[in-house]
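re the bet — no i am not wrong, look at it urself. input seq straight from the record:
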Amino acid sequence: MDELSAYALIALSAFLSATLLPGSSEAVLIGLLAAGNGEPAALVLVASIGNVTGAAVNWTIGRFLAQYEGRRWFPVDPDRARKARQWFDRYGVWSLLVSWLPVVGDPLTVIAGLARVGFWRFLLLVSAGKAGRYVMIASAWLHWPFP
């Protein structure tokens, strides 16, 4: 696989993983690192940008499509939305630092849009959390001895 394909793959995987679609960009990142495809720092950067862009799509859905919440086609399951709202109400805007968490992270970014969190504040907190996750994953893969 050439480097451009590796970067495109991690960007797409990270973007889709951050939306409400299922995905595992962490596994793709580890696979690319293990195969030696792409520079590790660039892979982390591209994955972070893709993942944050997907989260921004979620924020936009929450911010501008809130009037359709509860409809069958709306991308957030009502039970997941309720749990994410409870989390958001309890921890506030700082909960966006853990928007990378499985299950609650994606709906949390939609809830931030519903709660009308300012976009730049949202972007800063989500970027810190999501980029931090990819840095930790890549660092662990590159620096821990695996059999």
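see?? The helical segments are 3-18, 25-35, 40-64, 78-91, 105-114, 119-143. told u. also The mean pLDDT is 89. so pay up
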